Amino acid sequence: MVRIIDYGHYEHLVVDIESQVAVVTINRPRAMNSANARLHWELSQIWSDIDKDPAVNVGVVTGSGDRAFSAGGDIKEAEERQALDANAKFGALIDEMTIARDFVYAMVNCDKPIISAINGIAVGSGLALALLADISIINEDARLTDGHLRLGVAASNCIDGREAERIGLVTKAVPSSAVLSTAMEIARDLAEGPQPALRMTKRALNQWLRFGGIASFDYSLALEMLNFFSDDPGAGLDAVLHKKIPCFPSGGRRAPGGSE
Q: What is the CATH classification number for the domain harbouring 24?
């Protein structure tokens, strides 16, 4: 099969192709595969590359190591952005919103099936990546977490893999040792199937996202960015970094030992 895509420019994604299956591994294990600005950008590009690659019929995405699929956005970068003046922060948030939108749209618009092998915790943007896949295989002990509310911005929840399977949020929960092998078994089967039919099926199924869910996503993304102009995210980030209870200015909660 002719290769027209070079994946060598990706810094935090490792792409291995075998039997027309591309395994995309998020490779920041020391940071629990959290997404810095570069990785966010790479996630907005990889699915278009896979969609165009004639050597690939199916994509599988997983995290390196055994602790995390992806722990969401890079907290240190978020802290640095929060310290910017209003104009600089506005520019940074517009860039972040654009990349986040492109990443979601790229997964929805990729005609080839995408399978997530959720080997560990998935948070924030990592959670979006895990659940936007067409098929999701999760470690039954892994946690799915949207910790935005704890950071003082919109949305929050937390469940484990077993519960995610029970409520239909993921396709299947399996023991940790079987996550990638199960995903690969499904991927190989799909890679040998009728490709035009599979791709048109995905395109048809994703119509509800294009004409319903995406509009809600764009709206929620804009509201999330707006929240970053309040003082609450700074308090939330400080609490996460120092492992303490957040004291949000808008909520009136005082730090332990604080004065009236």
A: 3.90.226.10
